[in-house]
């Protein structure tokens, strides 16, 4: 994967390689199905240029488009629909435990009487 030219240096190497790997898997999956980029775009509900960006590993592409393209070519990013639903529901349960807002610094208590 090529290094991004538009200021994505803040992304970790792991993230950059992960984006690149997913991009390549989507591209290979599309080719295995014998689809053009335009056909995948039509099935995904986006433009061909968005597919070009996805396959190019651009980190600015909307995550919904990336995940939909992955699903269309047969990649189970989350282990298939039942697992994705289970993970989502479990995430909601865990999220409910935490406060809705987290402040940056804890309030310091003056207990020096």
Automatic annotation (TrEMBL):
SUPFAM superfamilies hit by this protein: lambda repressor-like DNA-binding domains
Superkingdom of this protein's organism: Bacteria
HTH cro/C1-type domain location: 26-58
Annotated protein name in UniProt: XRE family transcriptional regulator
Species for this entry: Acetobacter malorum DSM 14337
């Amino acid at each position: 994967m090529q290094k991004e030219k538009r200021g994505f240096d803040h992304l970790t190497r792991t993230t950059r390689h992960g984006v690149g790997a997913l991009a390549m898997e989507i591209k290979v999956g599309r080719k295995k199905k014998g689809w053009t980029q335009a056909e995948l775009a039509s099935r995904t509900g986006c433009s061909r240029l968005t597919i070009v960006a996805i396959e190019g590993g651009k980190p600015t592409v909307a995550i919904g488009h990336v995940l939909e393209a992955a699903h269309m070519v047969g990649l189970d990013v989350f282990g298939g629909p039942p697992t994705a639903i289970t993970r989502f529901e479990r995430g909601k349960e865990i999220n409910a435990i935490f406060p809705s807002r987290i402040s940056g610094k804890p309030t310091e208590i003056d207990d020096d009487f």
